[in-house]
Amino acid sequence: MDRQGGWRVMLAIDWTAFALGTLAGSAAGAFYFAGLAWGVRLALGHARPMAVLLPSAALRIALLLIAGWWTAQLGAVALAACALAFLGLRVVFVAAARRTPAKGGASWS
């Protein structure tokens, strides 16, 4: 208890785990979204797009789960940093994709 009668909580953050989690989340996000873009481009030119999209999604999800499992071994701080980095990268890539004009003049937004 402090002088005013309240409880103080000190959070000890392992900054090395946080940095490794951020690095892992950023790398996982970059590979995930690069794979998504590559898979969609391949599927658009393919006669059977599901034959491209399903294995692409399975591989991306498996790699993301492996990265998450590895990061979770470092602790909760690293896992939280990994998730935040992945979601932050998603926001950046979605914003960039919305600004990029579609070829042929068509727009989805």
Question: Could you give a short description of this structure?
Answer:
71% of the residues lie in helices and 0% in strands.
What does this entry look like structurally?
The protein is mainly alpha-helical. The protein has a domain at 24-99. The chain contains three helices and no strands. It starts with 14 loop residues before the first helix and ends in a 10-residue tail after the last helix. Pfam families: AtpR. InterPro entries: AtpR-like.
What's the layout of helices and strands?
Elements: H1 15-44, H2 50-72, H3 76-99
Helix pairs in contact: 1-2, 1-3
Question: Features of this protein?
Answer:
membrane, 109 residues, 71% helix, mainly alpha, transmembrane, AtpR-like, elongated, ATP synthase subunit AtpR, 0% strand, transmembrane helix
